[in-house]
Batch of 4 targets.
Target 1
Amino acid sequence: MATLKTKLRKKHFDTKFRKKKALDNLAAFDMDYAHNHDINEILRGNEAYDEFLNERNNGY
């Protein structure tokens, strides 16, 4: 019979594994999206990116 420590370790590993797998899938989706779309189209309307461009163009 498995001890509580072993059960907790297994549960922790399973949770980490599932989270990593979900993040890998999300990263693959993001990369696919970025490769199939124009970067300017993706960043259009992004306030932080617009602020960065304004500062870069104004020489701050």
Target 2
Amino acid sequence: MKRLLRTATVTLYVAVACSFWACGRDLPQILRSAVVRDPQIAEAQANQRVAQSTLEQTEASRWPTLKAGVNQAVLNSKKDYKFTPGVEANWKLYDFGATGASIERDRIKTQYYKNKTSETAEELAFKIATDFLEALKARESLKVAKENLARHEHIVKQLRIILEYDPGRRSEFTQADARRIQVQESIISYERALGLALRRLARYVDPPVTESELKDPFANMPITDLLNKYKVSEEDALAHPSYRAQARELESIEAALKVAERSRYPVVGLKAEANTQDSAVYLTMSADVFNKATAPGIELQRHQAAAAQAKLAQIYDSLVQRAEVAALQMREDQSRIEISEAQAKALEQVVVDYEDQFKIATRTLLDVVNAYSELASVKQLRVQAQADLMQAKLEYLSATGNLGQWAKIPDVSDENAKAEGRKKGEASPDAKEGKGKKKGKGEPPPPLTLTSVDDDEAMELESANADDAYGDEPYTGPETVFVRVSDSGELLLESEGHPLENIKSESRSVAKNKAKGNNAARKTAAGKFRRK
């Protein structure tokens, strides 16, 4: 029975899997699986980590440095060739904000690379979707060409039968067969275009996209719904990944300009040296008295900032223009589709009429094959108009920065949120902790614990305090005492289970009636606490 259940379960899984693959994947599913695993995204995420490491390195420059070394004289008039170990410490005290500007520059750089990762995902999704639409267009064109080939083969078959009884019509047969070969040549070109498009898709998609999976991804999204859901506005343009990345680039250049300007100011530091023979502490100050490269470096940053500002305006205009042009093109392509469909319907009737008239010799073969070619051309125009409409919708989504949202592509720029299952925009626990530390928030540091009193000494201290306020309580072992510093700088003691005020007041009363043995015990404990 168990074996039958196991077999039935496996069969059910296989059936579900087969039905899934039979249904095929749509374009959003293909984009979601392809974008996340693409090497371009891995490279962009690596650049994010590089920028984060650079930021941490710049932030660490605020800390003092400590070096240890050893010297040994090779030639010495005193004949002293001993090793001289020593340490050297350096601490930058004040640099007129140069370090802070460098940190701000690198922090903006991390945001730039994060937006650059989102931009890479959008561009990659657009590239894959474009190849998908090209493959779909090639398949539809191939379908129309095969229908045209079927018509030519039908007329050639009829002419072959007629030729058996009327050899004088061989010229018509040859003409029809030549047209059929011409259609076959067009089929080969469409098959080549389809194969190349699928091969380009196979570079990004695994498993490769099959011909059966090619279908209109915007079939259930009319133009009005698309325009109403994703509107062209200034806010959408400012939120586009390309615009945000360029805006962060401009901010980083402005921060670099500030760093270059602050580098002209002096740097005040503290230097300490110590070895087996001497030790000293120095207050140092260094500044560039003459450095001809400083002024051109500042001008360079200003020119780069102007170029970045111009590029930012260019990106904004390009995004708005792309979206507006795509919206106009969608309406135009829809009209082209309606006209071509009506024209194709009329030409289909013309073809039927010409075939009937050809049978009764009122129409020539040339009229029939020309009608075939005209019908195929109109249907190809309909395929082209449909492809242009899909491409215009794709352009519109890309220009408004909503392609990733439409395809539900995960945020590849936030690796930690993806790994920890956090929502987009939510700070990581490390970031929250770091933010609290920077602002001085969070829990206070753990109190000091009096751990230098041994068990025997604790017994002695407890017996010495037998007449104190806590003398009526049984001894339960060494008690943990917490030491805190009040706002006025007074050292306060706190015991587990006893309020701070009670201990403070009771300690004052106990201090007045303290015996000599109590004083000796307290001196012993206090000495051990200071040594600790």
Target 3
Amino acid sequence: MRQLYPAALWFVGVLFAAWPLSADSAECQCTRFRCRSDLGEFVYAVEQMLAVEAQWCVRNNSAYNAQGDCKYCSTNCKEDICDCGRSTSCDWASWAAGGLCMVVGILLIGIA
């Protein structure tokens, strides 16, 4: 039982170290968004009419809402232009679940 305590502390430490940091800071406001696809890179404001290629990019990428803003979280904010992150990179619960599965797997291998 004493061996589980350091493993639990290690797990908690890894979770906090891997906690995704938000790109939303006081300097960057995400007034424009960037969508990348095989057709190119499109930078746009959600208040403007998107080009047909930009609409295709946004609608075929699960990280964006239909109007072009981020569905989950914004990343890489530079000069008020932001990329949108996918759910797995924005949601800390998926990282925690993956880490917990790894710890349980290691413990079960150790028991076997």
Target 4
Amino acid sequence: MEGLYFNIDKNGLLTSNQYINLTQCENLEDLKLQLSSTDYGNFLSDVATQLSTSIIQEKASKKLQDEFRYIREQAVEPLRTFLDYITCGYMIDNASLVISGAIHHRNLEDILERTNPLGWFETLPALKSAEDIKGVLDILKESPLAKFITQSNLDDAEILDDLNIEIVRNRLYKAYLEDFYLFTKNELSDPDSTILPELLQFEADRRVINITTNSLDSGLSSEEKLNLFPRFGNLYDFSKDLSECDNAERIREIVEYVGEYKVFFDGSTGKSIEDHFYEREMNLCRDAFTQQFTFSTIWAWLRSKEQEVRNITWIAEYLEHSLAILTCTSSDKVSNNSTRSPLGNQWDQRTNGALETRVKDHLLPTRRQRGEMERQWDVLDEEVHEVVQLELGTVQRSGRIVITNCRSWFRIDQFRRVTIQPQHEQIAKLITTDSSVMV
């Protein structure tokens, strides 16, 4: 099986030339046609309705999930246990999603549709009825996550709110990663016991940096943060210092002690921390593919395919929403904002009319029109960036949305904080393969 996924499925990943073809598509039907000549084949053939980004993402994800299930069904020990460990990460995310939906009174069916099928377990729907952390833990003790409950030392007296849900999720992840790490070190033979711990060390470091960065204004104490950090990884020796950080500059100073993370806070590259993580992860996967007779091949294949689905989704989203997606389209909304932009009427005179028309028409511009708009608005990038920052507080959607008029992306992290990154590169240069990452 390992030989199968070394020799075939790595070649089944989209190539740079195929990505270039995808970025030259004019609409979603073109995208479907281009994907049909790849390993995705006719995965959209049963779609009777009009194509949308959500449908493409759903079908691409389902294809990946079916392939993973096939591997899991054919696996024997210790590969079977290794694959079970992988699914536990999805289970933790699913549990967090259901609990969060419950406290915000979301429809259970809608929530379950958003869960990852690879992380399904029988007691997952029952989490909606939990009234406090103790109820959550009692239900999770009847799931494959039971052994991580004991290791995480959670306080069952806490009430259910967004912050405590994140604390539960991160403590479970900590226990999960530590247990997974020990399994790869003690239960597997070389080269697995060498390669897989390195991959998990990266996962641990990613969690440490994300938790430290996202919790700056959360009110968590140093001790509480430290309890969320996995006790291994390249940043383990700096855990205490990171838990005491109160600003991004101090985090940067500490993280830079680890060579491979030195560029993560270098703003000159135009990349966010998340983008650097994606790039680092794909580089590790590329290296893992060079090994033979190791489970790391399957890990690398899964992570690469997940990134591939994200890339396809971003391209589809760009094609479907290539016009500006902003919460403000009129000068009134900007001028009435309590924190008025120093641009004043510059926004009204130079961008508002064109932007409002484009949002209303919501038509996909041709390549020539896109090029003309980019040239016309080149000098406005930084100015529009300022105004957009003022208005993003009302955005509810998580993830990435392209804002074409100022070529920016915005994200909402787990603590509902918004970050914006201006883009100045063509989309064809922003796609992740096994050696580059979409920004």
